[in-house]
Batch of 3 targets.
Target 1
Amino acid sequence: MHKQDPRQGLHLLVIGVVMLILLVPLLATFLYSISTSWGATILPDALSLKWYVQLWSDPRFLMAFGRSVFLCMVSIIVSLLVIVPLAFMMEYRYRQWQKIMDLVILLPFAMPPIVATAGLLQIYAGSPVMGTPWILVGCYFTIVLPFMYRSLVNNLRALNLHDLMDASSLLGASSFQGFMQVVLPNIRKGIASAWFIAFSLLFGEFVFANMLVGTRFETLQIYLFNMRQTSGHFTSAIVISYFVFILLFTMLANRFNKT
Amino acid sequence: MSYLTVSNLAKRFGDSLILDELSFTIEKGEFVTLLGSSGCGKSTLLRCIAGLTQPDSGYIQVDNENITFAPAQHRGIGMVFQSYALFPNMTVEANIAFGLNLRKMDKGLVQQKVRQAIARVELQGKEKNMPHELSGGQRQRVALARALVMEPRILLLDEPLSALDARIRRHLRQQIRQLQQELQLTTIFVTHDQEEALMMSDRIFLMNQGRIEQSGSPEQLYARPNSNMVAQFMGTYNFLDAGNTQRWLGLQTPNGVAIRAEAIILDHPSLSFGKKVSQPIASIITEKHLLGSVVRCKVMAENTVLTIDSLNNQFLPKLDIGSKVYLRIDPCECVVLQN
């Protein structure tokens, strides 16, 4: 008969406590977002989806949501256009520089966003990009670089890159044709995974957006910040909507990572 | 004029010399094997001919055209890789058509050529399969078809059979050789397996430390190795030093002789077929291994260990470990070593 490990109970307890700590605020926020009012009673007075209806019919929210999606998409496309060829070249031609590259991609982690924004505000003071969403595209590139680069390099390493490129050139393909027709289709899952990870990261970005652009280009996080004085039920609905959206993206990223 | 000329080809990687002023020629339609142990430079030589590695000096000429610095895609050379290097995102058909499509050939003609190539390597019915759905042998045949469909001037095969199991390997060896003879295709085959080299080649180049140690027909390399290294690589050779050669065979040689394991005759009272060709050399059987049709014995003759291969016939089972036997060696079978 299978004997149960006595430590298993303890392990389950630890996991249960951690899950509770993580989930309670989320469940409470959700409950708050679907309650009409919740004051002096233990449970809400009544349940309703009115805050969601109000939120999703607010043109200002929809615009902020659209702006966030637009900004993330532009940043990700620009980042992919730079990082995909970069990862390919590092893996194919300059493998000896890989260690230096590993250090370079860690640099964004070394600088807290608030410090980076202080520097950027000084450097770009008076520049036409300051205060426009375009400066965020550059900032967001630095945020997604480590995640995208690592994901793509791992994908390229799983390919027999050198033999595939050699075979394609012996069949008459230029390096560009080999990259486009052989390498790119074989790393599409890595690209999709990098895309979803980057989206999940950037969609919730607040510090750069608030400090460098602010209300001139109201993204979802800035909208949430500006709405902090309004009803708590309403802001809870924003948080839950945002959370569900990010959850979907993270699940997609994980799915592509596994396959 | 030879079809392929390689002259004074040299290549270094850092401090190590990989190709050491190599020169040789190959005729049109010849099947040449580059044989040698790992790191002897055979794959680097192949890559230089293919245009995938640039040599430091020397030149390569194909059909009177100097291709030393021509890009790989313009050399008209086909190559089959050890790893197959099939494009994982493409079907068998698309893999084979890849090069033809790059030449912007008419679609109907591409389809016809692809069909022919698939039939040639006996892969009908697998056209729509992806590479991961094929066995190792099938993948290698797709790689072969992909190279052949381009009608290359020279076909390079870089250890194409080394990742396959013995039965498929034997079958593919025959298939490759048959195709090469049918198409009269100049072929360079890289391997470290001497049996493969002996079976398939018109000529073998035995490489060692970036140089060709000996070249010649399989028979020449097997029966007449010119050095200790070649003899060791080509078969199970025994080496007799100058002293033993003088004493046992009455031959005077500066470096002794090499003798193949199957050329030493075991003589025993129970063996009546012993050919009396030299003075009997008294020895004791120390090891005995059954290799199918051949039995390999190790014997101690005075202080020298010799390996002997004998046909597995009715007399041999009587020879047990510890049995006293006499060896007889025909001096005509001995190869006098140059170095």
Target 2
Amino acid sequence: MTMNGKAMHWLDERLGLSAIREVAAHKTVPVHSATRWYYFGGITLFLFGVQVVTGILLMFYYRPTTAEGFESVRFIMTRVEFGWLIRSIHSWSANLMIFVAFVHMFSVVFTHAYRPPRELTWASGIVLLGLLLGFGFSGYLLPWNQISYFATKVGADVAGSTPVIGGTIARILRGGEDVGAATLTRFFALHVMVLPILTAGLIVVHVLLVQKNGMSTPPWISAARVRQMKFFPNFFLREAMVWYGALAVLGALAAIFPWELGEKADPFASAPKGIRPEWYFLAQFYTLKLIPSHVWIIEGELLGILGFGLLAVCWALLPVWGVNRAGEARTRLVSGAGIFLIAYLAIFTYLGYVK
Amino acid sequence: MASNGCSGECAGCKGAGAPGSESRRTMLSWLLGGGAFASMASFLYPVIRFLNPPAVTEAAVNEVDAGKVQDLKPNSGKIVKFGNKPALLVRVSDTEWKAFSAVCTHLNCTVQYRDSTRQIWCACHNGTYDMSGRVVSGPPPNPLEEYAVNLRGDEVVISRRA
């Protein structure tokens, strides 16, 4: 036996690696016209990994206080070697991750992978998307610049218009009546501890559910007749190549378009022109703008937030209304809903951007 | 598993068993491994450079105002800020003043003046220095750097010796 073989044998005896190898050897990926969409969950996971690594690095220099938060990010961007790269990758990767997560979600919708027995995989995915949006919202404030300060004020206010518990939510989010020093430390704690723990745990559940139920094949393809590709090494190496591609895109974006820092937040300055949230909140932002201040006896903002809440719950329950009694997907209804949702998000995001 | 690292399955692969297929496989493994190694190195390099803290440039301090003459009794000392390091100012007698860097040369603790022994003492490892900054006992390897003390009216000024 070679040295390498001996070492593997030694480890195997202690860790039971062969069991893992056994699972990997039996895992297969169906090969058909929609196989390419299987990559997007993996890309999301990869970008999350990039966020963890670059996020830990940024924490070496970042200081979560109103006095030093902005200055410490500026220090990272201007003084620390490769600091501009690490921070720009963190910002770009965050945005790409949310975009890719949306692509992943819609690919599940249009290939109808949510149908039984994958209801929980779908629901955990929706919660994960919510957590990613939470990362985006909390991370946006951390550089403590003018745009993020006012965007957070608006965001906390919107959360505050939730019926009954809104006031409490807003107070807990802000750590007081207004966005300030307490908000920054809270958002920092959420961003670097609470959300990562929840997300990492739920990712494990999500991925284990995928392992448990196997990869779904679209209903128009016969699962029994479809060709299978070995996960390891065939699909794994392809996925690795895609990750390399994603990393190349990320590096290029970060190098060509370094993330801006803006001006330091000033609570006693008027809100500058063009305050808007990150692009993934733009559609909701623009919708809220359109709703009049009062519709009949209901406050406009309340109506908006109720609508979004209802929409999110309906969407999470897709495996319930999108499947008939025989457990088959209602493909027309669900694809129609998917197209409608994409159209709404695309048009309203665009309008939110230009208006 | 066969000794060439090829599991039985690859017998059906195109080109398997053909002359040169093993050396081609070895070369591809090297290329793949080398590529993975090179990209890991290219990821790690900026990370290591990032972790190395940039030098924070500070205005070099050569002189500080250490307070008023009447604030310090004879045979007593106090710690004053000298740039971003502590300095020890001692009023030995009515007219004699001394100042030293207060950073122990042993392991960077901040020293203090002991009026009972009229010596400078470090509480961390019991090092003592005399009133010229020389080591009297204990582990410190080097004397304390001495600063010049000048009185301007009733102001005490400490400065680095040229």
Target 3
Amino acid sequence: MGLQKIELLNKEGNFVRDCPGTKNHICCGYKNIDLIEGCILSCSYCILKHYIKDEKIKINLNIKSIITEIDDLIEKEHNHILRFGTGELSDSLALDRRYNLNKPLIEYFGEKKKAIFELKSKWAQIEHLKPFLNPYTVISFSVAPQNIIDKEEKRTSPLYKRLKTLKKAQDLGCFIGLHLDPIIIYEGFEHDYYWLIEDIGRILDLDRIIWISLGLLRFPAKMMDIFIQEKRKNLLFGEFIKGEDGKYRYIKGERIRVYKTIYDLLKNKNENLFIYLCMERADVWKESFGINISKSEDLITLFDNRIKYLYGGMI
Amino acid sequence: MYRKKINLEIVPIEEININDRSFCISYPDFNERLNSSIKKIGIIQPLIVKKQYPFVVISGFKRLKSAINLGMEKLPCIIYDITDIDACIISINENLFREMNLVEKAHCINMILNFGFSMEEIYGIMEQIGVGRHENIIKKMIKIANSEKILKDFIVERNISLKNVDYLLWFEPEVRERIINLTGKFHFTESLLREILQMLTLIKIKTDDLPFEELHTLNNPFEIKEALKKRINPGIKKLEDEFKNIRRNLKLPDNVTIKIDPFFEKEYIDIMIKAKDKSELEVALKSLTENLKSKGMEAIFGITKNRIAE
């Protein structure tokens, strides 16, 4: 794969948008900051390749405009604690040491003390941010068994580095997030996820994990052909159906079984962990976690409660 | 340019290199109707050949094949003293007046690549022959042009789309041949063929094996589709069987239909009552009310959560 071109932009406005969500699925109400569009990492299952047609990576340098937009949203919101992140259209950290984009945002959220800023990544590099980190920035990593990282997440940091970096962030006073997303069903995956959760429990301070998301592999229909062409045995191992949104996802019974297994493994490590499902149906929530969530608002309230519980009067 | 160097001659067939197909686009290169016509009245339109010894055919491969078939000794030829690039352009233009099939388009692209046309020229010709301008398309076309006869014949005879050819090319030639032999027995719509080919690729990836023995015993493409679906979606198949079973046990009147999401994904079911008067509606509602007390109705809602009673 050749080097990707980077385009630096100085646009005004419209950088923050609600997570698009999926019809009849529960959404957590996350706010995406489109700071960077495109990614230098090379995950085989990445849907960015499908959504972003431009092969260039676009970086918006107009941080001032982004902060104005964020500030406006925070000031207008009176019911919920907003959560923002830059990890939707890119990896939050992969290019950060070179372009220093997160520093002003981290500082802004630290001073504002009214919302949470999440850096979501697979690139274990936070040294350059050390002097600026504060409790209002959550360092999050997507985690997967090393077996999957080796085969499907080329150019990303290995699992041990991700976990070590998360521990470092905890030691620096940050809450951290974990995203077990995508969870991939392949031969022997249960065994690998068991040990992944063992590693999480062994290395991290579980009381200082703000949230853990679980999301089984799902992808737009067009990507099925790509996986077939590339003979992605791991990605194609499970039984897929086409959901209401036209995306492929595992059959519901399998999703429930896997979510329940992982949920139980995590809860056995620490009963207080806040675990949520990314883009799932209400009945999957109920069957896997035993939690009644009938609409997105219910989940957003759970997030508010979680943040209030961890931050007390600090937010 | 080349138009200035033209000669019309009657050329002995041994002076033509009948094996050089460098400028050949036509596929297949034999046409029964043309053959009959030549047999009756001979070759009316001369072949176009390139001036060199032996002559190389630029246009007229079908006529040449018929001439050989009919044992003709001499052929009318227009002889062009031109470069290979110009010969390619003549060959393409000679074929532009008719609708080329996918294999011929592939031959065309393969030919211009072999003769070193620039990318801009290649994209221009792709547009002329009605093929999308994309590097990936070029790669696929090269594969088609260099593929085995059985695949080319299948593409032309069944007018197979590029998407489906792409699936076929994914397999090793010997597996591809077995798939063509299997599917060639039946008439498929493009979408059904696509579904079947996609399922075959998935089974191959998952198990490294294809169930040809079982598939060859089946009587129509829908049976093939069902057999493959059973392997690809065993969970869905189980849910379908369970749903049919429950539905049967509910003993609902004919005017009540229960519909469920085909992928058992949606949380709800649809109950439809067809009634032309009050009494039919009453019968339907009474039956539904009675069934509400049964375990069967509960089981249907369980199925929406992919629960199967043991």
